[in-house]
């Protein structure tokens, strides 16, 4: 899977899954745009990618563009700047997301709106603005990072779960709307992906998964590479669940 001459934008790429996705595309030779609202983390990932050029002799380029996906004007600027830098946009990974784990009795309207503006409206506007440039150069690929919480829930997850469930509907709607422009749109539903303390997980944490281990950010990054391969343009409007089999496991208490 080589992505030489491909330009990829990853939102929320300053840490966790987004960071792993950015590093994966860089290792495959893509030109990577880090779209992140936090300057410190965004610049950190950009510098890590630049370091790959020396340590692993990888031909890649990277730019950090500070972006808050709650802002429509910031999204327009992100796409305009990327096109100005590279003359094309080939791949968009919608990953930036937030959550509030609060009782539905206590969750404020402002908090609900912030989740929807980031996790849902931000995805739509990024896809729409990127799509305008993708169709100029013959097409592209969009991957929306959703969650298995779109399919199942824990208490006090209403805003996050609703936003991720809506992403699945948004994905297949965009896939059909963008089809004539040769733009594929797919979703990934990660399960438990440990982004901070994998080495401290307990044995039972791993064994509760049919895969016999908890997920890693790199598991999601590899799926993004697969879905955005040019050869895989027959795959669109789909939802790929990557959770070690947990959503298919029957649990009785």
Automatic annotation (TrEMBL):
SUPFAM superfamilies documented for this protein: NAD(P)-binding Rossmann-fold domains
Superkingdom of origin organism: Bacteria
Key words of the record: Oxidoreductase
EC number: 1.1.1.47
InterPro entries: NAD(P)-bd_dom_sf (IPR036291), Sc_DH/Rdtase_CS (IPR020904), SDR_fam (IPR002347)
UniProt-recorded Gene Ontology molecular function terms: glucose 1-dehydrogenase [NAD(P)+] activity
Biological processes annotated in GO: bile acid metabolic process
Pfam families associated with the record: adh_short_C2 (PF13561)
Family: Belongs to the short-chain dehydrogenases/reductases (SDR) family.
Name of the protein described by the UniProt record: Glucose 1-dehydrogenase
Source organism of this protein record: Heliorestis acidaminivorans
């Amino acid at each position: 899977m080589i992505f030489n001459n491909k330009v990829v934008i990853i939102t929320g790429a300053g840490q966790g899954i987004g960071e792993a996705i950015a590093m994966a595309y860089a290792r495959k030779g893509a030109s990577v745009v880090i779209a992140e609202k936090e300057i410190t983390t965004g610049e950190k990932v950009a510098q890590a990618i630049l370091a790959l050029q020396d340590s692993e002799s990888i031909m890649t380029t990277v730019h950090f563009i500070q972006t808050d996906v709650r802002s429509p004007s910031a999204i327009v600027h992100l796409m305009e700047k990327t096109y100005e830098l590279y003359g094309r946009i080939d791949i968009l990974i919608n990953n930036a997301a937030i959550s509030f784990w609060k009782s539905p009795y206590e969750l404020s309207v402002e908090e609900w709106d912030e989740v929807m503006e980031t996790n849902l409206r931000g995805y739509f506007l990024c896809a729409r603005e990127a799509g305008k440039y993708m169709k100029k150069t013959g097409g592209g690929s969009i991957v929306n990072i959703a969650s298995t919480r779109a399919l199942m829930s824990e208490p006090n997850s209403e805003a996050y779960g609703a936003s991720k469930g809506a992403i699945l509907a948004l994905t297949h709607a965009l896939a059909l709307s963008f089809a004539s422009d040769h733009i594929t749109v797919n979703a990934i539903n990660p399960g438990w992906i440990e982004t901070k303390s994998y080495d401290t997980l307990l044995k039972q944490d791993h064994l509760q998964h049919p895969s016999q281990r908890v997920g890693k950010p790199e598991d999601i990054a590899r799926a993004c590479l697969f879905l955005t391969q040019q050869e895989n343009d027959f795959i669109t409007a789909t939802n790929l669940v990557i959770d070690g089999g947990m959503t298919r496991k029957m649990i009785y208490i």
